[in-house]
Amino acid sequence: KGLPHFAKGEVIKGFGRGSKELGIPTANYDVDVVNKLPDEVEPGIYFGFANIDNGCVHKMVMSVGWNPFYNNTKKSMETYVMHKFDSDFYGKTLKVVMLGYLRPEKNFASVDELIKAINGDVANAEIKLEADELTSFVGLRLFQNST
Ligand code: ADP
Ligand code: MG
Predict the structure, then answer these.
(1) Looking at 10, 42, 78, 113, which residue is catalytic?
(2) Which residues form the Riboflavin kinase domain (predicted)?
(3) Which of 98, 104, 124, 145 sits 20 to 30 Å CA-CA off 113?
(4) For this structure, is 78 an active site residue?
């Protein structure tokens, strides 16, 4: 349903809700990139690959949607790149390929539960990207060849 989906755009300031302080920074795209998402791509959590300024390719998890936890009114695409970076990369070009779907969006009773869920998403993304070799291989190949 709309996957794989490739997206490319500048990393902008997000909603400043301090995901970084939670240990889970999420790189935000502007609306132009979000508007290119096919309608079939439902809100939820996705996994795939990402890179910054055509650098090394890393695994990623992305939240698409309305962020019910924060009562958002705006659609968003927020990417957690599964790599430890030395510095922020605002203004740089983030490329992603979304390969698979992990779960729908959920409301969480507490920040603790939210963090637990995200850590679970990261673990699941690891497993899927390792286990589903074909998806992973094709995705990675396509990704590295796309511009
Ligand atoms: P914002 O509200 O501006 O999105 P966050 O707290 O979500 O702030 O942090 C996101 C920023 O952190 C990204 O725009 C990026 O510059 C930086 N960053 C550092 N490491 C990562 C990472 N592994 N994944 C995503 N963003 C990261
Ligand atoms: Mg963010």
Answers:
(1) 78
(2) 1-130
(3) 98
(4) yes
In whole angstroms, give the CA distance from residue 143 to residue 147: 8
Provide the residue type at 80 as one letter. Y
pLDDT at 132: 86
Residue 70 has pLDDT above 50, yes or no: no
Distance between Cα 147 and ligand 1 center (Å):
23
Handedness of CA 23, 17, 35, 43 (dihedral sign): positive
The alpha carbon torsion through 18, 23, 24, 28 (nearest 10 deg) reads 40
Our answer on whether the CB atom of 63 is closer than 6 Å to any ligand 1 atom is: no
Q: How crowded is residue 85: how many other Cβ atoms within 10 Å of its Cβ?
A: 12
pLDDT in tens, 74-98: 668 999 999 999 999 999 999 999 9
What number is the average pLDDT over the span 42-68?
90
Complete edge-to-edge strand list for the sheet that includes strand 27-28:
5-10, 93-103, 44-52, 58-65, 76-81, 27-28
Question: What is 5-145's CATH number?
Answer: 2.40.30.30
